[in-house]
Design brief:
This protein has one helix and three strands; from the N terminus they run βββα. By secondary structure, it is of the alpha+beta class. The protein has one domain: Transcriptional Coactivator Pc4, Chain A (Transcriptional Co-activator pc4, Chain A), CATH 2.30.31. The chain has a three-stranded antiparallel β-sheet, with no helix packed on it. It is flat, with a radius of gyration of 13 Å. The protein starts with 6 loop residues before the first strand and ends with a helix.
Length: 61
């Protein structure tokens, strides 16, 4: 999801401390740096559907 010309949000499945997670993180591309930032969260994969429902609820409000 593109936020601006140099910034986007990337959602991917990953593994954190032995747990499958959704990794939701900001990615930037500037002349000085290209890659993931520290801004983001890891959510257990089994909580993904609950998170999606909560996001949709907020968007529809």
């Amino acid at each position: 999801m593109l936020i601006s010309e140099r910034k986007k949000v990337v959602v991917q499945k990953s593994r954190f401390r032995g747990v499958d997670t959704l990794d939701i993180r900001t990615w930037i591309e500037t002349p000085e740096y290209k890659g993931f930032t520290r801004k983001g969260v890891n959510i257990p994969i089994e909580k993904g559907e609950e998170l999606a429902k909560k996001i949709l609820k907020v968007v529809k409000e």
